[in-house]
Design brief:
Radius of gyration: 22 Å
Shape: globular
Motif ('KMSKS' region): 286-290
Distance between the termini: 31 Å
CATH architecture of the largest domain: 3-Layer(aba) Sandwich
Order of helices and strands: EEEHEHHEHEEHEEHEHEEEHHEHHHH
Largest sheet: 5 strands, parallel
CATH superfamily of the largest domain: HUPs
CATH class of the largest domain: Alpha Beta
Number of strands: 14
GO molecular function, one term: cysteine-tRNA ligase activity
Strand content: 15-25%
Number of domains: 2
Low-confidence stretches: none
Motif ('ERGGDP' region): 183-188
Pfam family, one: tRNA-synt_1e
Function: Catalyzes the ATP-dependent condensation of GlcN-Ins and L-cysteine to form L-Cys-GlcN-Ins.
Structural class: alpha/beta
Helix content: 40-55%
Length: 409
Amino acid sequence: MHAWPASEVPALPGKGRDLRIHDTATGGRVTLAPGPVARIYVCGITPYDATHMGHAATYNAFDLVQRVWLDTKRQVHYVQNVTDVDDPLLERAIRDGIDWVGLAERETALFREDMTALRMLPPQHYIGAVEAIPGIIPLVEQLRDSGAAYELEGDIYFSVEADPHFGQVSNYDTQLMRHLSAERGGDPDRPGKKNPLDPMLWMAAREGEPSWDGGSLGPGRPGWHIECVAIALDHLGMGFDVQGGGSDLIFPHHEMGASHAQTLTGEFPMAKAYVHAGMVALHGEKMSKSKGNLVFVSRLRRDGVDPAAIRLALLSHRYRDDWEWTDQVLETAVERLGRWRAAVSRPDGPSADALVEELREALSDDLDTPTALAAVDRWAELQTAEGGTDESAPGLVSRAVDALLGVAL
């Protein structure tokens, strides 16, 4: 599966700072100091209704992580999946009376278009669940053969008790885990399971649903969590720098994925930091496909909204915070974009060297984008009020805002 084209990231004078970021597993900030190549895995979409503002906010957050790393003169190895076969996708295809493969291809193509318009840096490896199945099967067999998984009416389940570190990503109590498991695709009430929290690794073929030859597992399709584990281990290995996604993936997805990988390899942890973006609400409720309260990037673009303004609307909130999308949020972003573009259109201006360092400091401090935007606002206001004589300043501001914030002026 191919990703989307990469926009050029301008090189800035000097060197950026190492990223200090909130780690869900420890509950505090960690300083990430990768080697020459930083490794990041971000969970991708289930392509049945893309791309809403919650998606955009999540991928914006991890785009910023990459930009901070690139500014430290590192390379970035970024991997993202597409869950192109799963119950929600199949249910939507049945509801709409269309082929599930066509639905997945259509929505994935739209997602690529939105990511390109928003200037999100693409992954080096963009892998669909279906194409990952040949690598998933041996991992499930390994877990089963080692006693870390078991069969129940043809389905294969992972035993959470096989991982001594289970629970150390979310740090949730059992009651909350069970509630979230039921809410987010698990089946804690199924009779016969060793532990209600045990997740499915391999679903035996169901009538009327797609299935693949699973070798000794029998025909079926993979569970949700093992999909990402197979892709991450194949392309990044254990101990990669950041596992990313929305906060709704903390449990069960990232918890279970970590346990799968740690049990398979005997190594801990799967990722050095688990980083999660907040949820975006609309009309007081979390923006979600199931509720249908969605604001789509593609619709805003069709309405003539500049993608740079959409990105500035996302940047106006700290990535970890839950927030609400409103018309005012977008109007403020449109106005800000206009001010910034007017400021950099002049032939000279106030020195921007200090601004570049302010941007670097704000972003290295747990991706503090509101502080970063405020710094550019101050430079633009000074440019409007007093101007300056530095002929290189407007160009430097444009390059810095592009390189670090992904906004083209």
